[in-house]
Write a structure and sequence with these properties.
In chain A, 30% of the residues lie in helices and 26% in strands. Chain A has three helices and seven strands. Chain B is α/β, with parallel strands linked by helices. Chain B has one domain: STAS domain (Transcription Regulator spoIIAA). The chains are: A alpha+beta, B alpha/beta.
């Protein structure tokens, strides 16, 4: 699939952490397609990984009968990432602030903060028929993305 | 590349040289298991050398926090050494730099553990 000259990527997996290997492989393909530099590639991989793990563990409660879907596309000046799950959904504003002194020593709860810190846009919506849809956009500047062939 | 952990000892300080990726699953379990075994053997002073760790996710950060609190609850100390810029950025974003003592020089770190 192409979008404005760049390929788009899509993957749907059952909600098992073992499936994350396929997610990382797809990210590597996208990084190559969009000619991202190593710094951008690192943060893109980290934030997509965090969002997919959230979808598997928190959205779908690690139920392998439920699926998580990842879509990656680029217009050339930005990368759009969409992660969908089949869970009951949550509200970004209701997530406890992991940088609050009371939460600093908790072992979890930092994924959304990392995503929000790196991405330029983060929107969460509910899908028709159930499930959540997390849309993230990262603008590309300088040498982060090359022209399509 | 999954995480590799190599322990070495200088007097009563255990230095854990970590390399690779500290991520959900195997990477975090390796660290947790090793810290617990060392604590059970009586060790109380730990230095985690992260010089060769270029990728850590939120679960990996959580495991560093768990290691820190576990060691502290045993009356010990756990400090970090040689953060890569990416790991430093993550600790900054999550404000974990206010939790950990971080060093760029092993000798300096060891002095504070004496």
């Amino acid at each position: 699939m192409t979008s404005g000259g760049w390929r788009s990527f899509e993957l749907t997996i059952p909600s098992r952490l073992e499936e994350m290997e396929a997610v990382h492989a797809l990210i590597a393909e996208a990084v190559e397609e969009y000619s991202l530099n190593s710094e951008m590639a690192h943060w893109i991989e980290l934030t997509i990984s965090e969002s997919m793990i959230n979808a598997i563990q928190h959205g779908n409660k690690a139920d392998p009968a439920k699926q998580a879907t990842l879509r990656i596309s680029s217009s050339g000046d930005a990368i759009e990432i969409i992660v969908e799950d089949e869970g009951k959904g949550f509200t970004l504003d209701k997530i406890a602030d992991p940088t609050d002194k009371a939460n600093l020593l908790k072992p979890s709860g930092r994924g959304i903060l990392i995503i929000r810190s790196f991405m330029d846009e983060v929107d969460l919506s509910q899908r028709e028929g159930g499930g959540s849809r997390l849309r993230m956009v990262k603008k590309l500047r300088g040498d982060h993305g090359a022209d399509p062939q | 590349m999954s995480m590799v952990l190599n322990p070495r000892r200088l007097d009563d300080v255990v230095i854990l040289d970590l390399s690779g990726r500290i991520t959900m699953g195997e990477g975090t379990l390796i660290l947790r298991d090793r810290i617990q075994k060392l604590l059970a053997a009586g060790d109380r002073k730990f230095l985690l050398n992260l010089a060769d760790v270029d990728y850590i996710d939120s679960s990996g950060l959580g495991e560093l926090v768990t290691s820190f609190t576990t060691v502290r609850n045993h009356g010990g100390q756990l400090k970090l050494l040689n953060l890569t810029r990416r790991v430093q950025d993550l600790l900054q974003i999550t404000k974990l730099l206010t939790v950990f003592e971080v060093f760029n020089n092993e000798a300096e770190a060891l002095k504070t553990l004496k």
